[in-house]
Amino acid sequence: MCGIAGFIGGGDPAILAAMTDRLRHRGPDGDGVFVDPRWRAFLGHRRLVVIDPTGGHQPMEDEDGRIVVVFNGEIYNHHDLRQELVARGYRFRSDHSDTEVLVHGFKEWGEALPSHLNGMFAFAILDRRDGTLFLARDRFGEKPLYYVHRDGLFAFASEISALLRHPEIRAEPDRAAARKFMAYGFVPAPNTLYAGIHKLPHGHALLLDLAGGTGQPRAYYRFRIEPDPPPGNEAAWVEELTARLAKAVKVRLESDVPLGILLSGGIDSSAILSFAADCRPAAGIDTFCMGFEEASFDESPYAQAMAAHVGSRHHEDLCDLDRARSFVAELGRTLDDPINDPSIIPTSLVFEFVRRHVTVALSGDGGDELFAGYDPFAVLERAKLYHRLVPRPVHRAIEILAGYLPISERNMTFDFKLRRGLRGLTHRPALWGPMWLGPLGPAELAELGQEPVDLEDLYSEAIALWDGSPHLGLGDRILEFYTNFYLVEDILVKTDRASMRVSLESRAPFLDVELADFVRRLPYEAKFRNGRGKYLLRQALSRRLPAAILNRPKKGFGVPLVKWLKGFDRMPAAAVPGLFDERGFDRMWDEHRQGHRDHRSGLWSWIVLNQTLAEALKP
User: Fold this and answer.
1) Which residues of the chain fall short of a pLDDT of 70?
2) DSSP β-bridge partners for residue 155
3) Spatial distance between the Cα atoms of 217 and 139, rounded to a whole number of angstroms
4) CATH architecture of 2-219
5) Torsion of CA 215, 216, 221, 227, to 10 degrees
6) Class (C level, CATH) for 234-372+482-550
C-alpha cells in the first residue's frame, strides 16, 4: 500500500518531492522518483512495505527501461498472472512483487491490463517508447486517484492535497459541487469539490498521449446487476458462494508483515474471521473492535462473542465524546475529499488502535451493498405502496409532522428512519436512494443555498444510473445505487482515508472480483427474502456463526451524533463565504441543541465541508 504522485509538463524534482512528501502517511517506509527529461515526465512514490520488502521498490522499470510504474494497492491474483506471463516469455527480477506483474502485464495486454487484475489499485504506467501515460483505478474504487488536465500540464496524485503542492494548481471551490455534497453526502466522480480537479471514477482508465496532451477517461468496468442464476439449485449456490468467499479471504491473508481482522460483531466481519480461521491457527489471529459508552451503539459484546467462538486474540478500544471532539480538528486533513459520514471518527480511531499491533487488516466492507443488508431494503414494498397511494399534499403534511417527533439519541431509532424515508418518497424512485442517504433534502438545499434547486441537475448521476437499468426491479436498482455510489464514494473513501492516515492497509474480501461477479448474477430473492437481507449469505454461514450473531438485526457502525453535536462547540464559520446561508445553519444548530429538531446530518455536513475547505485553502 502506497501513495503515488506525478506530472507531465511544467515543474521540477523539488515540486515532485513536495507532492510525495504530502503522502508520507501513505508510505512511511521509503520513497522513490523517476524523471524523464524527453517527455518532461515526473513520477513519485511513497511506500508502505507489505509484499516483497526487498523486491518491491518503486518506481519500477522493466529490463530495458521502456516501462516505468508507480502503483498503490494490492493485486491478489499476482501469482497466477506471474505464471501466465512467465509462460509467455517474460522474465521477472523480483521474488514475488505484485508491482512487477503490472510492468510486464502492460507490455502484454496494454490498455486491457486492468481487466486482468483482481485487487485494489490505482497506478500510473509510463511507456517511454510509445510516449503514453496510462492511469487506472480498480473496479470498486478502493484506492483513490485524482488528476488535473489542462494545456501544458497533466498531474495526478493519491490525494487532492498532494496535487495542491504543485504551484500551478489551486483549490478553487466549485459551487455546484458543494451542493452535490450536501445532496449526496459526497461529491460523485468525476467531480471534486474544486474546479479543474477531477477524480478518476472507479472502473475507469485514462491513456494520455504525451506528444499531443490528449486523453479522456474511459470505463473498463461498471458494476451491473444482471440476474442470470448460476446452474443448480439453492444448495449449489450456497456451496459456490462459500467457495468464492473462502478463496477471497485466503488470498487476502498474504502478507510479509503482521495482519489482523476488524471485528464488529456483525455478519460480514464475523464471516471474514471464520474463513480466516480455516487458513491459519485461530489463536494467532488478532481481532480488533471499537466500543462505545452508549449501549445502543455498542457492538463490542457481539465482537467478543465471535472472537471467543473462533478463539482469536481479541483487542478492544473505546470511543467517547472527548476523543470524538478532539478528532474533529483533523477532519479536513484526514478526508481531503469530503464525505458526510460521522463514522469516520470511530473508524479512524479503531485503525489507529489496530496499527499499534499490525500493518494490514481485513474488513467486511461491501457485504451490505452486495447482499441488500441496509434498512431501506426492508421497507421498499411498503414505500412503493405509500408513494402510489398517498397524495403529495398529504405526504408533505405527514413529513412536516414527523419532523416534530421527539428526538432520540439512540441508534437507528424509529423517528430517524421515518424522517429519512419520508423525505425521499415525495419524489420518483430514482431519487429515493440519494435522498434517504443525503444530508439535506431539496427544500432545505433551496433555502440554505439561497437559490432554486433543479432536481435533474442536482441528482444527475443517480438519475443516469437509474435510467440505465430499466430492466431491473426496484430492489436491484436501489442495490446498484448503493454499490456504485454509497460504497464507492463514501464507505471506501472513509476506509481508505482512515486507514492510510496511520499507514495501515485495509483489505475487503467481499469486493473480490470473482465473488462480486457471482453475486451480481443472483436473483434479488437470493439476497433479500422474508423481510431480511443477506439471505444466501446467511445460509452459507449458518453452520459457521453463533445464532446470536447470525440472526441479530443490523446495527451498522453508527455514532451517537445527536448527543455528540450537543457537546461540540458552535458551528465553524464558513471557510468560503457565499456557498450557503451561514445564518440558516446557525438556526439549525440552535434547534438541534435545544432538542427541538434533529439536524444531525446537515450540521455534520457543514462541519466536514468547512474543515475540508479550510485545510485546502491554507496559504
Assistant:
1) 1, 296, 381, 383-424, 554-558, 569
2) 7, 148
3) 14
4) 4-Layer Sandwich (3.60)
5) -150
6) alpha beta
